[in-house]
Amino acid sequence: MGVYFHVDMDAFYASVEQLDNPEIRGKPVIIGARPGTRGVVSACSYEARVFGVHSAMPISQAYRKCPQGVYLPPRMERYAELSRKVMHMFDSYSPEVQQISIDEAFIDMTGTERLFGPLYDTALRLKQQVKEEAGLTISIGIAPNRYLAKLASEYAKPDGCYLIREGEETAFLDNLELKDLWGIGKKTLERLGEFNIISVPQLRSFPLGSLKTMFGQAGGAYLYNAVRGIDSGIHREEPKSRSISSEITFPEDTRDRDSILKVLLDLSHQVMFRLMKEGFKSKTVVLKVRHADFSTTTAQTTLRHYVSSAEEVFSEVKQLLKKRWDSSGLIRLIGVGVSSLERAGDPEQPELFEDQYDKQKKVEQTVLGIKTKLSVNSIIKASLLGKEKNHGRL
Q: Do 32 and 158 have their domain in common?
């Protein structure tokens, strides 16, 4: 049996803004579009969440709930810079670190107790290191599998640490409400309510066959495993060919095209920045979509040339989404990735003619170079500003 840390940076985007600007510490900080536009909230501080603000919420709704909030555009390069710094710390604890988004990762800690001592103590040391060296707080969940570790970190938030020992899985799950189980959203809760299922123990009493009849093959199997603490493989290991990806689960299942495209653009920049920073190149762009019924589809396209910019990644995943989603079904999770990575220094056949993304690539490489050499943090991608922007129709 293995053991995993799930490390989640608390209110990451907002925490970075409060770190860089002490004047807004303790205030409701909302990252995303500007009030008065049709954009959405990318992230928000815990102070803003008190007012009912959450990510992917229309900015107009957020402003109605919290007009006194501090509204800021996202600074992806700065967030990526601090993310890399924190993720680098994880590498000193285990060779198996699986980053699943800009602000969270799994660390396989199996067999490390002889080296570092008790797991809980190790987690506390890691929390202290991140606080001292990066100025950020993290929450850590410790458990026998990734699914439980993710639940445990969420249970510990903010700035907490929680350990689920082998054999304690059921007791831990029974302390949670159904809405606390990762992957169970508003629509699923409504459906469970129709069957008068209102607690984790009650849901666990249903046999697998009954759940599949009520919720479909994928949904029934997921629910059966979820209330038993069984990892359904939501966060699989990266393939041997290696990939870089980032994904987000919406607070509520959504079919809002603007919100989905905003998230895809954000994820595309996260992935491309990591690709350049880590010194890789790729021709294969991947889209991951999890629907409201828990069914998951992936689609990919392999280009004749190496992807050259975040805008190109975004363009490709937008086309993949158009083929896999008809705008009517609800989406629970969406992810962007690049796979079959090759070292950037490997020789390649140059293109005879410059394509539309080559200039964008040069700009992004320049930004990366400035950020790396001079630690300049005020460079902002115009496409990620709060300014209303047409990202293109599906």
A: no
Cβ 196 vs Cβ 175: under 8 Å: no
**240-294: per-residue pLDDT in tens?**
447 888 888 887 788 888 889 988 998 998 898 888 877 888 999 999 998 888 8
pTM of structure: 0.70
Q: How many domains does the chain have?
A: 4
Residues 222 and 264 in one domain: no
Q: Is residue 393 part of a domain?
A: no
**CATH code at 125?**
3.30.70.270
CATH number of domain containing 298: 3.30.1490.100
Amino acid identity, position 39: G
Q: Which residues are catalytic?
A: 104
Cβ-proximal residues to 249 (8 Å cutoff; 6+ apart), any chain: 182, 183, 290, 332, 333
Q: Comparing C-alpha atoms, which of 115, 144, 348 is closest to residue 230?
A: 144
H or E segment and range at residue 170: helix 169-174
Output the CA torsion sign for 86, 88, 93, 97: positive
3-state SS, residue 281: strand
Q: Write out pLDDT tens, residues 79-113.
A: 989 998 999 999 999 988 888 888 999 999 999 99
Tell me the backbone φ, ψ of residue 322, rounded to 5 degrees: -60, -35
Alpha carbon distance 239, 137 (integer Å): 30
Strand partners, 333: 249, 290
Location of structure tokens 């987690």: 123
